[in-house]
Structures are given as C-alpha cells and as structure tokens.
Amino acid sequence: MNDTPILDAYQGDLLDLAAEPGCGVDDPAVRFRPDGWLLVRDGRIAEVRDADAPPDARWRRHDWRGHLLLPGFIDTHVHAPQLDVIASYGTELLDWLQRYTFPAEARWADPAHAQRSARRFVRELLAHGTTAAMVFPTVHRAGVDALFEAAAGHDMALIGGRVLMDRNCPDALRDDAAAAERDSVDLIERWHGHGRLRYALTPRFAATSSDAQLAMCGALLRAHAAHHGGLYLQTHLAENRAEVDWIRALHPDARSYLDVYARAGLVGPRSVFAHAIWLDAADRAQLAAAGSAVAFSPSSNLFLGSGLFDWASTAAAGVAISVASDVGGGTSLCQLRSAADAYKVLALQGQHLSAWRALYAITRGAARALRLEHDIGHFDPGAAADFVVWSWAADALQRHRGALARSLHERVFAWLTLADQRNLAAVHVAGRRIALDAPLPADAD
Ligand SMILES: [Zn+2]
C-alpha cells in the first residue's frame, strides 16, 4: 500500500446494530442514520457520521441517498457444490443426500469442474449480498483449493475445509483415513490465516464419519489451538428425526447426538453446528457452556421437512444463534429470504422474531458466532468495509408497503420480509466494489 490513503465516503441510510438487541421493536442497539456518511479508509471503516457532518474534499463521495446501507450478510452454513441441486423435488434429508447431493458432490472430482463451480458459488454469494460465509465444499482437495482461491480473489472472509466422510457414503466420496488426515494438514497449512481465510475441520455428520475420523478432527483442533486463533469445526447436528434415530443406532452408548461429537473433543468455542433442532435441555446447556454456535437454517428445515428450530429455548440456554441459508437444502442464497423464513418458523411455535434480532443473526450476531466480530458484521470504526447497498423498494408493492410504515421497525420488518436480491444495488468487500456484471463461468458444465 502506498502512502496516500484511499478515502471513500458513502452517503445513504446507514443501519447496523451496536450490540445484541432484545426482543422489543424499540431497541437501543439499533443505529439508524438517514443520509449518514460511511467513511472508508484503505478498505476499513474509519468513521460513521450523521447527515449534517459531511467529510472534507479529500474524500471521494458516493451518493446512495434513498438507499439502505447494511453490513454485508454472513452465511454461517452453506454448501458450495449444492447450487447444482437447489430446489430438488420430493425427499427428506437422508434420501436427498443419496439421490441429489452425493452425485453432485462426486462431480467435484474433476478439478476443472470444481474450479468453475467454486467461482460461480462465490459470485452468487456476493450477488445475493453475502460477503462472508462458512462453507462446505466436498471431500476433494482440489475443490477446497478452488473455493479458497475464488474467495481470495475477492478478499472475502471465508471459512471452509475439506469435507470428511469415511463411512455410509458412496465409494467415490469415501475417505481413507491416511489421505483425509494428510489432506487436512496440508490444507490447514496452506489456507488457515491466509488473508481473511480460515480453516474448519468439516466432518459431514456423525453418520458418515467413524469415531476414528471424529477423533482425528479433535486431535487437529487441539494441535492447532494457537494457530491464528485456532481452527474451526463445522458439522450437522440433529437436523431430522430419521437421522437422529440413525445416530442413536450407530452410537447406543452415547447420551445424545451431541455427545458423539463431545466425546471426540469437537464441542468448543469455534464449533458451528447446523440445525440443532432435535435437542434436549442438557444438549443446549452443553453447547452454551462450550461457547459453541448454532446455524439455524429455516429455509432448509422447511424445504426438507426437517422440523421447527426452537429459538426461544436455544437462546434462553445462552447458545449463540445465527441464521443461515443451508443451500442446497435451503432454496435461496439471499439471507433476507432466510430471515423471512426464520420469522415463519418461529411463528409456527408462537414465537416472534423482530427485524432487529433477524438482522443481528445475519450480521453482527453471525460474526460473533464465528469469533469474527472484530472484523465484520457492523459499522464500528476499524471493521472491514464489507457492506451492501440495497434499494428500499424493488417494485411497486414494496414501495407502497414501505410508504405506509409508521415506525422504523415496521419499515425495516416489511423490507426484510419483502425484499430480495432484486433490491441489491452494490456490494463492497474490504472497501472494493464487486463487479457483479463480469461474466460468470459457463453454465453448461
Ligand atoms: Zn448443511
């Protein structure tokens, strides 16, 4: 970087959260600055100012008045190869894996296919307003490289790791123990702490990893505890009743599904468990005590008929909750759609998710769950300038509904519920605007 700082000033309706909001619709954590100024110096947020305090002439101005500026969304659970099977008909989890997902993942054995797919996936994340994510690629080492390379090309904060499966899966995707460990060690050395990239041990779930493979993950977590803050662990937990029954049959001596992971040393402060629907109070207390996080994936849970996540009990236990897309079980990469589905899942249980809590769960709260709150999820000075410009209305109905709102919460709640990627106007990662109209890889492979 040369000595002359790059100074950009973005003016628009700035909205972020200073802390975790409570349940109410009026909350002191909400920071809304109509026509405010977001000042970005060399890719980081320097300052946020009100409309009446414009910066001086050194700052290059970007006029987004009449638009909403939000921190980039964070997706804490999503599968890169599953864009090929999003919106696939007629199955629950275990059949869905066999019929749709495993064949799509097997195609990543071809490194050229994996590279095209990874580039398309990262571009689609950005095109839906998601600037950071925790991602499952596949069991293929070259696919992990392709995913990290695609993210590094945009300087994105991305967490991922080679998927591990050594039983109960097709031969083409099954690990041998030595290769799985060697690949994981090599990939950790190559990618963990490379720019904004971090590595996650990624056993798919307890049915497809032997006890020995889970123990290998635990050993690597311990061995790298001081390596760039430690490795992450991502896996699935208690998504579907047939899955839970299967885990019980495979592990009759375990107290619960979570206990299978706990015995391997996988329940820790950098562990993110997708779904966590079919838990009991002891499981939730264990997750909270360990500082582990849950990635609630409402679109997927509805689409695959998996169940209704109990937000109230999970939050009351003290577990960090983020909202994730879980594409391709989920049907949209747009985290606005995930938030709207989260509201509906809670409504079916007599619970209510305010716009502020929903926004928190896809921005600052997701960053906190990933131990990245120092870097992303908000407009605090010093944070990376990962932010997205949205239009308040992409069509006449959105405009009509927004105009009738009598409070900020009503306006933002209606926007969260009705808006989608059509509303997206511009995406910035580390202060650089992403060119979303650049050609994507060929679609036909
Ligand atoms: Zn998943």
3D architecture notes:
There is one protein chain. This protein has 445 residues and is an alpha/beta fold. The chain folds into two domains: 7-72 and 385-433, Urease, subunit C, domain 1; 73-369, Metal-dependent hydrolases (TIM Barrel). It is 35% helix and 22% strand. It has 15 helices and 16 strands. The protein has helices at residues 93-106, 111-127, 141-152, 177-191, 211-223, 241-250, 257-263, 281-290, 298-303, 311-316, 335-347, 355-362, 364-369, 396-403, 408-418; strands at residues 7-17, 30-41, 44-49, 60-71, 73-79, 130-136, 157-160, 163-164, 197-203, 232-237, 271-275, 293-296, 320-323, 387-391, 424-429, 432-433. The strands form two sheets. Strands 5, 6, 7, 8, 9, 10, 11, 12 and 13 form a nine-stranded parallel beta sheet that branches. Strand 15 and strand 16 (432-433) form a beta hairpin. Helix 3 packs parallel to helix 4 and helix 11 packs across helix 12 (355-362). It is globular. It starts with 6 loop residues before the first strand and ends in a 12-residue tail after the last strand. Zinc ion binds next to strand 5.
